[in-house]
Design a protein that fits this description.
Elements lengths: L2 E8 L5 H17 L4 E3 L13 H22 L2 E3 L3 E5 L2 E9 L5 E6 L7 H4 L8 E4 L2 E5 L8 H9 L4 E5 L7 H15 L3 E4 L2 E2 L3 E2 L3 E7 L5 E8 L5 E8 L4 H9 L8 H4 L1
Parallel strand pairs: 1-2, 2-3, 8-9, 9-10
Antiparallel strand pairs: 1-15, 3-5, 4-5, 5-6, 7-8, 10-13, 11-12, 13-14
Helix pairs in contact: 1-2, 4-5
């Protein structure tokens, strides 16, 4: 039975340098607890990211470099959250994937942009599955979780784990958690969902969702770890093989010919 130790960081933005330093301390704590994969939220270094676009993109390399050092020191993979990156003439929201040797081995672009983001950023065009710590892993950045097709594509591509960097306002936390649990159970994939916390505006509520199967074969989502308010680290152990058969059965019973309208819609 394969088991992996994962972590989600719930961070409180408060200036890039200060927030990065606090994130590094939480990652060091995760490393000491032998976490293998850690996930950060979306736009976590910035209090008002849309008003800090130039500073955010200028800080990108330094942020990734800092995370790479701690990844290398503790032999831990890090999904760096949704960061703002200048790519030629395009501004993108990307999640860099940092290996346990400290190298950036890939990145996932945010595909489904939210409201004002559509005016500021270029959307991604593909949802990828990465080999992270020996686990086939997909990444959905914040608003991507709203669309069931996104998580399903990752499942079809073989994902065993989904990392979900987010930036969810307080009013939306309850609904967001429902999205996470539903995407998890409908695809039979555990999810690490990391949010920010910022006073009354962003409500935290980060969660690591796993799955359990009853003797009668009913699969249901369970909370492996969760936090409320504040800046916190959550850690959980996941058994990856326990639910693999249920995921294979679910995908095998699909009928793509009945879903053709999705392609033309």
């Amino acid at each position: 039975m394969r088991t992996i130790r994962v972590a989600g960081l719930q961070l409180r933005p408060g200036g890039v340098e200060n927030t990065v330093n606090r994130a590094l301390r939480l990652l060091e704590s995760a490393g000491k607890r032998e976490v293998e994969v850690a996930c950060l939220p979306e736009a976590w270094p910035h209090t008002t990211p849309y008003l800090e676009l130039e500073a955010a993109t200028e800080a990108y390399d330094a942020i990734v470099s800092s995370l790479s050092r701690v990844a290398r020191e503790y032999g831990m993979w890090i999904a760096a959250g949704g960061l703002y990156k200048q790519d030629g003439d395009a501004l993108k929201i990307v999640c860099p994937i940092i290996s346990d040797s400290g190298d950036v081995v890939g990145e996932q672009e945010k595909v489904h942009l939210f409201r004002v983001e559509r005016q500021l950023f270029q959307r991604g065009q593909k949802l990828n599955v990465f080999n992270i710590a020996g686990v086939k892993t997909g990444i959905l950045i914040c608003h991507d979780i709203v669309y069931p097709e996104a998580a399903r594509v990752l499942a079809i591509k073989g994902a065993e784990l989904i990392l979900h960097p987010s930036r969810i306002v307080s009013e939306g936390v309850g609904v967001w958690r429902q999205y996470v649990k539903v995407r998890s159970v409908e695809n039979r994939i555990p999810i690490v969902a990391a949010n920010i916390y910022l006073r009354r505006l962003f409500g935290g509520g980060s969660i690591i969702t796993g799955l359990r199967q009853s003797r009668r074969g009913v699969v249901y989502p369970i909370s492996l770890a969760s936090v409320g308010a504040g800046e916190k680290l959550m850690v959980a152990d996941m058994e990856l093989d326990a639910i693999a058969g249920a995921r294979e059965e679910r995908l095998a019973n699909r009928l793509p010919s009945a879903y053709m309208e999705l392609i033309s819609a």
